[in-house]
C-alpha cells in the first residue's frame, strides 16, 4: 500500500483520498536476443532482488534542507526496517551517516510524494551519493504512514506493486482512474497513472502468484475506479494494515534465514550448483596464500555472484558479476589475502538442466 500527508501535524485523509507511492520508471536491462521467454522470465523475476545476506546500508539526507526529516519521521523508518528484519529474513539493515557508504539514501520532502527505486536499481542507476533513492512525502507516524514506510522499503527490497499483478483480474474504469489521479492529492499525469496503476505486470514479475489484496505492496482505492471484481464498484478496496501472510512467505522465499555454518570453497575443488531458480548457495573462503584468484561458474545457467569480505563482524562488498541473459559465465578475478575471511554468494536465475552448473576457484 502507499501512504498519506503533506505535513506531520495534519489529520490523515479519509480512505480513498490518500496520495500514493509512484515507482520510478526504469529501463529493462538488455538480454541477448536469443534468450527465450521462459529464461527471460526467470531472470526478470529475480534480477532486482539483492543477494541474500547483503548488509543494506541506508542514510537520511540532510541536504538540501527540504529533504530533512524530523526525528519522529526517521524513527518511523527505522521501525519499518526493524519490522522487515523481524520477519526473519537474511538481509541486514544498517544506518550510516555518510551518503557515499549508503545504498539507500532517504529524503523527507513534503509534496514530492513517497517513492523508491526498486531493489538493485538503487545501486545500478542511482549512483550519485547526493541523489535520493527514496522519499517520504507525508507523515509516517499514522497507521497509514507506517504502512507507507513498510511499502517503500518493500520496493527497495525488490518487490513490485501488487495491484498490478496480472492474476488479480482487476478491470479498471480507465477514464475514471485517469481523472481521479489527475486531481488532488496526487496530481499525476496520464503516463504516471498508467505506469503505476493501469499497467499490468508481466506474469514473471510476480512469479505467477495469486492476487494478494492485503499485501503491503497494494494500494488503497476508493469505490468507483474498479469495474471487476464487482464489489469494488460500490465499496473501496482497503488492504489490511501491515504484512499479509503472503508478504511474509515471499520475503522469506527470496531472503531466507542464513545458514549458521557454510561449506568452504578451496582452490581447484569443483562444487556442483544444485539449486532452483531464485535460490542461493553460499561458500566461505579462507585463503592460505595471498595472491590473485579466479572464481567462475560453469554450465548453461544465469547467475549473479557476489564476494564479500568479513571485517569487524560485517560483510563488506568486495567484487561481483552478473552473467544473466548472456552466453558468458559469472567470473570474478580478485586478489585475496591470507588470514582474511570472505563470503561468496551465488543466486541462480536459470539453469538449462537441473544440477548442470558447477563452480571452481583457482
Beta content comes to 15-25%
Give the CA-CA distance, first to last residue.
48 Å
- What CATH first level of the largest domain would be assigned? Alpha Beta
Helix content: 10-25%
Q: Total domains, how many?
A: 2
Tell me about the biggest sheet?
5 strands, mixed
Map the helices and strands.
Layout: H1 37-46, E1 55-60, H2 71-86, E2 92-95, E3 104-107, E4 115-116, H3 121-124, E5 134-135, H4 143-156, E6 171-172, H5 174-182, H6 190-198, E7 226-228, H7 245-254, E8 271-273, E9 280-285, E10 291-298, E11 301-311, E12 314-322, E13 331-336, E14 341-351, E15 357-361
Parallel strand pairs: 1-2, 1-3, 3-5
Antiparallel strand pairs: 4-5, 6-7, 8-15, 9-14, 10-13, 10-15, 11-12, 11-14
Helix pairs in contact: 2-4, 5-6
Overview of the structural elements:
- The chain is an alpha+beta fold and 362 residues long.
- The chain has 2 domains: 218 residues, 3-Layer(aba) Sandwich (Collagenase (Catalytic Domain)), CATH 3.40.390; 91 residues, Jelly Rolls (Sandwich).
- Helices cover 20% and strands 23% of the residues.
- The strands form 4 sheets. A 5-stranded mixed beta sheet has the order 2-1-3-5-4, with helices on one face. A 4-stranded antiparallel beta sheet has the order 8-15-10-13, with no helix packed on it. Strands 9-14-11-12 form a 4-stranded antiparallel beta sheet.
- Strand 1, helix 2 and strand 2 form a beta-alpha-beta unit.
- The radius of gyration is 22 Å and the shape is globular.
- The N terminus is likely disordered.
- It holds the Pfam family Astacin.
- This is M12 family metallopeptidase.
